[in-house]
Specification:
The chain is of the alpha+beta class. It has two helices and seven strands; from the N terminus they run ααβββββββ.
């Protein structure tokens, strides 16, 4: 009888731990911050300046990509050629909607 009660206590503890650990899922950081990611993908032979809603975020090198974490929502995206142009830089624009914890790409 003593072993039965000990086993019963052990089963109860294991069940309690299983329920407790499954109900304590950690909220992802992006969900807490309300953010998503935008990746600028540069297939051109020249560097470009990256802008979101007219705010400069950084540069993207030729043939590479750069990712920025931003608040989720609809964004106006643009890139402007940094060098390698004759008279005027190339400018590419678009709109992307960043969902919570999701990634979007802007390729040019």
């Amino acid at each position: 009888m003593k072993n039965f009660l000990l086993n019963l206590k052990l089963v109860f503890v294991l069940i309690s731990l299983t329920i407790f650990s499954s109900s304590c899922k950690k909220t992802p950081e992006c969900e807490l911050a309300g953010s998503g990611e935008i990746t600028f993908v540069n297939s051109k032979p020249d560097p470009y300046y990256c802008y979101v809603n007219t705010t400069y975020l950084g540069d993207v090198a030729p043939g590479s990509s750069v990712t920025f974490t931003l608040q989720a929502g609809t964004k106006q995206i643009s890139v402007e050629q940094e060098s390698g142009f004759t008279l005027y830089p190339n400018i590419f624009t678009g709109t992307r909607t960043l969902d919570l914890c999701e990634s979007e790409a802007f390729s040019f």
